[in-house]
Design goal:
By secondary structure, the chain is α/β, with parallel strands linked by helices. The chain contains 9 helices and 17 strands. Helix 7 packs across helix 8. The structure holds flavin-adenine dinucleotide (FAD).
Length: 357
């Protein structure tokens, strides 16, 4: 039976990012790698967006970058500019093609549909598949987006709308997100922060259609792409093993207060590559205990007081653009954390600190 030095379970964002990082740094010249991926074909299934606070390997897969972003709520709005950290959107189709083209040239790398096809007894495993079914009665960020094309140039393609809370909240947290790729093409998403078993929030098609027609004033549009997702706002359980590391969402690379994961996956891949020769003894990588602590408090507030969240986000965005971006991208220093924390309503956050989950 086939044996490999390394096995990556799941050839999605994390699995392929890691394989690519190892390959371009010659770590697979004399080591073998199996990638287990059941999907029949790779096609565009996601748009990964983030503020570019670090360099990554996929600048040539970026569909568009912006320096301006806005947030709207019923009580106000803010527009911010960040020259240092552009907001980028990566097209997953370009990402998959770039990586798979590169990996196909290395004869030490092989793809399999199922782990049962190989012997993993002597392999080191990087696993990106959650070990259990995730609890839907907990809080998730769930969303659906459509990319639309319209006849007239109606979008301002210099500014993204990160959050528009001018919509029905249904006792949860709900906002729309608009990425204008050109003046007549944009990705528009409806996003909920709620328990995932609440089926009444999942009529995404009609929510988006209503937003496009009533709020954006667009009556006629063509859908060119659709994406749907659900990101748990809690970390998955995993069993610790000497010959296995979890990566991607399964490896806790999601920032729980925001759902941003892509850039954390890239940093994790780099960390693994730097430590690959002694991976068994490498410390488990995390995105920062400070952020886990702050996000846990933030999520307690979100669960207790969903109606306060539009204003809490609005207040956060009163800070300087670079401060917010660094905070939301886990790159802030103590002073920047403090500037954000001081914007928060003191009493609700204090109560949340002393409340058990
Ligand atoms: C639609 C969508 C949009 C997102 N947008 C953003 C964004 O804008 N910015 C951001 O930072 N994050 C975003 N995320 C969150 C996160 O970046 C992505 O979910 C990212 O794809 C996570 O990478 P992953 O490798 O952990 O999971 P995936 O990319 O889902 O990869 C897991 C892989 O495992 C495979 N698999 C499943 N079962 C098995 C099995 N039994 N054995 C082997 N393989 C298996 C799957 O086919 C898949 O290819 C988004 C998520 C979704 C769903």
């Amino acid at each position: 039976m086939n044996e490999f030095d390394y096995v990556i379970i799941g050839g999605g964002c994390a699995g392929l990012s890691l394989a690519y990082e190892l390959d371009i740094n010659n770590k697979l010249d004399d080591k073998t790698l199996a990638i287990i991926e059941p999907r029949a074909e790779y096609k565009r299934d996601k748009t990964w967006s983030f503020w570019k606070v670090i360099n990554h390997n996929f600048d040539d897969c970026v569909m568009r970058s912006w320096n301006n972003f806005s947030i709207n709520s019923p009580s106000g709005s803010h527009e911010l500019t960040t020259e240092n950290f552009p907001y980028q959107s990566v097209n997953s189709d370009l990402f998959y093609k770039k990586i798979n083209t590169r990996l196909s040239k290395n004869k030490n790398i092989k793809f399999f549909k199922s782990i049962s096809e190989i012997n993993t007894n002597n392999s080191f495993i990087f696993n990106s598949v959650p070990e259990q079914n995730m609890d839907k009665s907990k809080f998730w960020q769930h969303f659906q987006g459509i990319e639309i094309e319209v006849e007239k140039d109606i979008f301002d393609d210099e500014i993204i709308n990160l959050m528009d809370f001018n919509c029905e909240q249904k006792d949860n947290v709900h906002f729309f997100y608009t990425l204008p790729f050109t003046k007549n093409k944009a990705l528009i998403e409806t996003t909920w922060l709620s328990k995932f078993d609440n089926e009444s929030l999942k009529d995404y098609d009609s929510q988006i259609d209503e937003y496009i027609k009533k709020t954006l004033g667009i009556q006629k549009y063509k859908i060119t792409f659709k994406e749907k997702g659900a990101i748990p706002l809690f970390h998955p359980n995993s069993t610790k093993k000497i010959n296995k590391i979890n990566i991607g969402s399964a490896g806790c690379m999601t920032r729980l207060s925001t759902g941003y994961t892509f850039l954390n996956i890239q940093e994790h891949s780099k960390y693994i590559r730097e430590n690959i020769d002694n991976i068994v003894n490498a410390k488990i990588y995390n995105i920062g205990k400070k952020y886990e602590f702050l996000d846990a408090i933030f999520l307690r507030v979100l669960k207790e007081y969903p109606e306060k969240m539009p204003d809490i986000f609005l207040r956060m965005f009163e800070s300087k653009a670079n401060t917010i971006v660094k905070f939301l991208s886990n790159k802030s220093n103590f002073l920047e954390d403090l500037l954000i924390i001081l914007k928060m309503p003191k009493l609700v956050f204090l109560k949340a600190i002393f409340k058990n989950d």
